[in-house]
Amino acid sequence: MGTKSFFTKQKSQSKLRNEERLSINDVTASVESVEYIKQHKRDKTTFLPELDFSDPANFVKYGSAKDYYVDLVDRITASFPYDGSLTERLKFKNELVAIQRYEFDNNYPRSVGYADFNDSNYASSVNRFTAGGVTFGLGDSSTNHYIITDNYSKNLVYNTASNQVGSIELDFSEGTTVEFWMNKRSFPNPTKTQNEVIFSISNETSDFFHVATDVTGSGSILACFALGKTATEFIYEFDSGLTTIADSSWHHYALSFSTNSAGYVGELYVDGHFKQKQYYTKASPFLVLTGTLDATVAASSISDYLGDGKLSASLDEVRLWKTRRNAKQGTILSTTTLIAMENTIKILSNMTKKDVEKCLVMGWFILMNHLK
Known about the structure:
With about 375 residues, this protein is an alpha+beta fold.
């Protein structure tokens, strides 16, 4: 055996020092786009003067120091691509002048906290209905404490070719994913409510999609899609793998839904890890949730039970995606900065459909700073 044979053998190995060999496609799959690489290079090679921008006296020689900061804030609030891709955000940063870049990196607020729904005030009645053999019991809330939005918002791009239709219109044949952060400390008494609704979409005929807890199944997450409250399309009782979801810790939950030849497929991920896949057989699935839609966070959106089944927990960064996302794609939630605007819920729903960004089509975010 000659020395050359050792190199031939090494070329054929799929692993080297326990590391997987990656193809060009494997490497590029983790990059948003070619343009992002260009902007990243520009970011790393941009010259920044060695000035201490923390004190205006160090750089303001002419004009008003106040105007520097007013112009900065105005530019960010008016032009920052809140719903943009990573490329668009980095391009915006690269086009800032030195002082603007300093303030943007160091002082501009990057988060708005979270929504606190820890309020367990219920009236005496519990509204019950059965879907797929599971009886839901939504306690009648004595105080309104939830977020609500509808299917359309100002400046929404309507383009059926790219599936840019209503913000919360669902088509399970295209895939649907709901993800959120939740910190739950306790469950309410089951005599007050059997279920706490985390996220809900419904229409004028009470067709609905719910993600909810079961107060007697401490580690469970329920997901249900039904027509007229009782004609079940699918229902899943996922096991989170946690001893209890009310462990006073923040966890990231992602529920992904799609279809196969037999009906529906549901998947649960917790903290980025796959937990469970379930199948629901449906001979002739309805597939879509459309009509005059409302969506709520932390309570039911069904018109007869609006605000009932209120959640007692803290939530952050709730997202609905019009596509099925996997665990790797789901981790984007924990790294994406959402910036809220005062006293509004902004639906950011018109991401550009590119071949390299298929997983990002029609993502929308609920910004948690407007409670009803």
